[in-house]
TrEMBL record:
The keyword Ribonucleoprotein does not apply. ATP binds at residues 30-36. This is GMP synthase [glutamine-hydrolyzing]. It comes from Engelhardtia mirabilis. The chain holds residues 210 to 529 of 529 of the full protein. Its EC number is 6.3.5.2. GO terms for molecular function: ATP binding; GMP synthase activity. Residues 2-195 form the GMPS ATP-PPase domain. Catalyzes the synthesis of GMP from XMP.
Length: 320
């Protein structure tokens, strides 16, 4: 019986068996589907002996932190710690433009912040992760067939193995579709279960060039308009990802009687099966027009919107 209900029951029972009567679990919650569903299963299994840590790295989409606080803290009543680390991340990223360096810095900062927070749960002897079956397989393949490894490029950022905690992975036998079905079954809101993939390094890899607080703000505002306009007319159906990218380009515009010289953002909208290949997607002209008008009128600091019509390969989905 592979109904979502029976999968949940089976995983809850396994968690209880592994964790025992008194064990405690620390879990890095990212707001993505996998860690969210893992959190709900763990919470169902052990309640307050689950401690969730959400790191606000200052590179989240607009409103993302509130969604996590409301859903997990208030609705599910989990023990949730939200770490306000935006200033720290942005300070470390100041002046950095190389995409891979951005990723390295963010991964490193995440581990530091998480480790510091996890210290408060000294009594916890388990580290929860939302590892899926395909992650397990990929990881085994990448390590020459050894099953005794922790996936290093996991979204959680490659957690330190010197935390001396035992891994607990309630999704490690499941595929993405099953995880989504379980998430719905467990009452996770559609904003979490059906959400588009979002890279671990967040908006850092969608701000081409230097990351500044002002650039983050511009991109958050523009991206929120892209998302809400597309979703308002149901155009997200069949899309893999749809988002805005901030370019390190300024151009001349005109607003009223005045000349402007402001930033430019690109619209990235793709269809894909697995992110290995992707096609840029058509959107109706009126929708494109509305998105462009709203961004230029409402986001002071952006005066031009361009459309990315590149497929993968040879382009990639993200710009960095
Ligand atoms: P690209 O840009 O390589 O992206 O075509 C393929 C898929 O992977 C996501 N992506 C990332 N996810 N950390 C992540 O967790 C990353 O550093 C990262 N880079 C890209 C991207 O959003 C797309 O779905």
């Amino acid at each position: 019986d592979w109904s979502p209900d029976s999968i949940v029951d089976a995983q809850v029972a396994r968690v209880r068996e592994q964790v025992g009567e008194h064990g405690e679990v620390v879990l890095g919650l990212s707001g993505g589907v996998d860690s969210s569903v893992a959190a709900v299963i763990l919470h169902k299994a052990i309640g307050d002996r689950l401690h969730c840590i959400f790191v606000d790295n200052g590179l989240l989409r607009k409103g993302e932190r509130q969604v996590v606080e409301t859903l997990f803290g208030e609705h599910f009543q989990m023990d949730l710690t939200v770490v306000d680390a935006g200033a720290k991340f942005l300070a470390e990223l100041a002046g950095v433009t190389d995409p891979e360096r951005k990723r390295k810095i963010i991964g490193h900062e995440f581990v530091e912040v998480f480790r510091e927070e996890a210290k408060r749960f000294k009594q916890a002897n388990f580290l929860g992760q939302g590892t899926l079956y395909p992650d397990v397989i990929e990881s085994i393949a990448a390590h020459g067939g050894s099953t005794d490894v922790i996936k290093s490029h996991h979204n959680v950022g490659g957690l330190p193995d010197d935390l001396e905690m035992e891994l607990i992975e309630p999704l490690r036998e499941l595929f993405k579709d099953e995880v989504r079905a379980i998430g719905r079954q467990l009452g996770l809101a559609s904003v979490v279960v059906d959400r588009q993939p979002f890279p671990g390094p967040g908006l850092a890899v969608r701000i081409v060039g230097e990351i500044t607080p002002e650039n983050v703000r511009l991109l958050q505002e523009a991206d929120a308009i892209v998302t809400s306009e597309i979703e308002a007319v149901g155009a997200d159906e069949g899309l893999w990802q749809y988002f805005a990218v901030l370019l390190p380009v300024k151009s001349v515009g005109v607003m009223g009687d005045a000349r402007t010289y402001e930033s430019c953002c690109a619209l990235r909208v793709v269809q894909s099966e697995d992110a290995m290949t992707a096609d840029w997607a058509y959107l109706p002209q009126e929708l494109l027009q509305r998105i462009s008008n709203r961004i230029i009128n409402e986001v002071r600091g952006i005066n031009r919107v361009v459309l990315d019509i590149s497929s993968k390969p040879p382009a990639t989905i993200e710009w960095e």
